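Page 47, continued from p. 46.
Same chain as before, 255 aa.
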Amino acid sequence: MGTYRFEEAKTGRAGCQNKECKDAKVKIPKGELRVGSWVDSGNFQSWYWRHWGCVTPKMIHNVMESLDELDDSSGDEKNFTLLDGFDELAEEAQATVQKALEQGHVDDKDWNGDVELNRPGKNGFRVRSKKTDDEHKEESPKKTASAKKRGRADEDDADKEKPTKKTKAVKKAAKDESADSKSAKNGRKATNDDAHQEAEQKPQSSRPKKAKAEKNDDAEAKPTRGRPKKAQAENDDDAGAKPTRGRPKRAKTSK
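Result:
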């Protein structure tokens, strides 16, 4: 059996190992009655402490079995002084521990859990309500049915999305037709591009060049802009008679 110790907390640093208190990280105040269980795991040894109000009937039963192993007397009265730390407690604390060990559980006024579980043979710290159990049982079939319904819906969607052989063949034919149409279009485009390129590369004929020569002759024969010039002879004859610019001078009179 395990080893247990009863004492008043020497410091307020130790935490209660009851699950509810441990999750909330509740410490045992200094000077409060606590019960320790000695744990030896091979790698470490330590006391695991609990509030006096967190000591369950199961733990009280284990303490009594440990006391029976320590007490060799055949009398009906138990020698509680054999318990580790018992004789160091105050008289009031000794009376509290002795009463709890004799009745199989701590007093209800000291118990921190549900009173229904603070009786010999009971386990646990909190009562699980029947309503919660019934609700859980009612919800379970609903969840199962809902899951099955979702599963069937998923299967139906999968069947709808799954392509058949005929659908695959139609899609393949449409894809091939689209590829052929695209190839033909590219072919026509390539033919037009080749023809255009050949037309650009084809040398010009001699006739356009002749026309260009005639055009040059016409350009030479084309009169220049402005007043047409008279023949060279006429220009020479009229050169002296050409009036000068400006106001004509009067003839000089003889004096």
